[in-house]
Design a protein that fits this description.
mainly alpha; 86% helix
């Protein structure tokens, strides 16, 4: 039974990683994250008040102790956090790159300004 749980956990990690990396932070992904967070909070509170249920669930799944089940869930949550953080940083890097390129183009001298500067020897601002 433990091999089944291990396969399910590995598949969960793979599926969650792909699901979080493929899309942006749209409303659907935000809703899924909020639902998962609510489920996690309810399960955490429930396991605090009824720890024997956690141990029973773990033994039903073929896991030795309830604390091991919590460890496996924590590992999955950590991987989800890593995936979403990577996605967020990648999005920020893309936005910063686009902004930098736009600023560089907006502040670049046009060919007419460059020609006037080389003929006069100084910029238009110096003439004011």
């Amino acid at each position: 039974m433990i091999i089944v749980v291990q396969i399910v956990l590995v598949l969960a990690v793979i599926l969650v990683s792909f699901a979080l990396m493929r899309g942006g932070s749209n409303a659907r992904h935000l809703a899924i994250r909020r639902i998962l967070l609510a489920i996690f909070a309810v399960a955490a509170v429930f396991s605090i008040f009824f720890p024997e249920v956690l141990s029973t669930t773990a033994s039903f799944l073929g896991i030795g102790r309830g604390t091991d089940l919590v460890l496996y869930a924590t590992i999955i949550c950590f991987f989800v956090y890593m995936a979403t953080t990577y996605q967020r940083f990648h999005s920020l890097e893309t936005s910063i790159t686009k902004l930098s390129r736009r600023l560089a183009l907006d502040e670049a001298e046009g060919p007419v300004e460059h020609a006037e500067r080389s003929v006069d020897g100084h910029s238009r601002e110096g003439r004011r």
